[in-house]
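Figure S7 source data.
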Amino acid sequence: MSLAPLRALGTMEELPKDYLDNLFATNLYPLWPSLRAVLPPHKPTAKTLPTLWEYQDVRPLLMKAGELTPMEKAERRVLVLSNPGHGLANMQATPVMYLGLQLIMPGELAPNHRHTPNAVRIIVEGEGAFTGVNGERCPMERGDLILTPSGRWHEHGHDGKSPVTWLDVLDLPLILGLEASYLEEGHDVKSAPLPASTSQYSAAGLAPAPLFERVQNTHPLIRFPWARTKAGLQQLAAADPGIKAVQMAYVNPENGADCFPTISFSAIMLRPGETLNIPERSPAAVFHIVEGSGSVEIRGQKFDWKEADTFCSPGFSTISLKNASATAPAYMIVADESPVHKKLGLYEVRN
Ligand code: 1HN
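Tokens for the predicted 1-hydroxynaphthalene-2-carboxylic acid complex:
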């Protein structure tokens, strides 16, 4: 059906002031002057601005936070990657996602706690730190993806020698909007080395089944080591040189579902010289570069990226990713809000 032109609606200015005063005094508000703002034609209005955070800009400020604020005064020492379109104090990158770069110094412990928002850590720099998730000790190595699902106890420690940083991705803005965000403090356990879910799910397609019993846990695999992800992408690329994108999803190995009910995670390898055009999809997305350099065009806006940089795109954006190198692949981890869109029946891909 062809689309009809929208009719012009009445404005606030057209309404008598004493009538408006009466409405407000009665906790009432007229819909029609605001109807077009909440239901724009054809495409939602995005507050989310395409935004790039370069690690070289963030790093010195994060290290300064390490000098200015001891762990006891911070609990988590984080600089939030705040999207200016949402207002910096709102601490959100996209409608669903919060992003922060976190620093832990040698010998520090970020105390054990649990909360309702889901969180993922993507390790950016350094070695020797660990995250304990319900007592499972997950070593933090560059490019690893570590889940701390809603309600799981988690703490971060550091036995190494140099600063360790990582990117936190949480569904905090959504959970806050639902007025469902809260935290509980626990006792530090400094996390035991075992059992390690990474060892239980060490081979694709194989799941632990002692005496024929399968794991009943909603998050059976907590740590996805980067070395495995990278090798998986390389094998996928080699197995099918004609594949339209070298992309693999991080999933629950027991059932293939997204790791979280809100955010989905995947890894992309841009082949040497590749330009990857991602169609216009309804969910907003976040990209974190693990290796390589290149550029991205989002809604016509161009950014150059390199290792450890992070950028976000609003939903309903065409995204064109370009690898700057003709000889080396580039690798990135992508987080997007598609699980929420799919559950709410809002998911769209436009071609
Ligand atoms: C949190 O628990 C962590 O555990 C990091 O490392 C960032 C931002 C908001 C709420 C909870 C962490 C967080 C957070």
